[in-house]
Design brief:
Layout (H helix, E strand, L loop, with lengths): L2 H9 L4 E4 L6 E6 L2 E7 L5 E5 L2 H10 L3 E3 L8 E5 L6 H16 L4 H9 L2
Length: 118
């Protein structure tokens, strides 16, 4: 996978919006205003994703390409290097997992709104 394919996969997610809230090189993907993925145009070789805390540790132990994310809560956020030992299918699954982690923290009202969105 590369940055273009990762962006295409993220932006295709239900309710996804992309923005540059931090600077003009950090592309953030949000759903209902909550961040689930980050791509850096300055460092196009990785993606930052939210993860269940236990699963995050398991991934870091198993794959050299998975590391705690710099500038994020390292308990829940991983940075994953493209073109390494993480297969594309797993990377897609991890993007889905990140989105699921965000959605499950929504309030009931937000979940209902998200469920009804296109």
């Amino acid at each position: 996978m590369d940055i273009e394919k990762a962006r295409e996969y993220c932006i295709a997610k239900k309710g996804c919006e992309e923005c540059f809230p931090f600077d003009d090189v950090t592309l953030v993907f949000k759903v209902m205003g909550k961040m689930f993925a980050v791509l850096s145009l300055d460092n196009p070789d990785m993606i930052i994703l939210k993860c269940d805390a236990v699963y995050a540790l398991e991934l870091r132990e198993k794959y050299s390409a998975v590391e705690p994310a710099f500038h994020f809560n390292k308990k829940y956020w991983n940075q994953i290097w493209f073109g390494s030992d993480v297969p594309d299918e797993l990377l897609c699954s991890l993007i889905d997992h990140s989105l699921d982690e965000v959605v499950k923290k929504f309030t009931k009202k937000m979940r209902e709104e998200y469920a009804g969105s296109n």
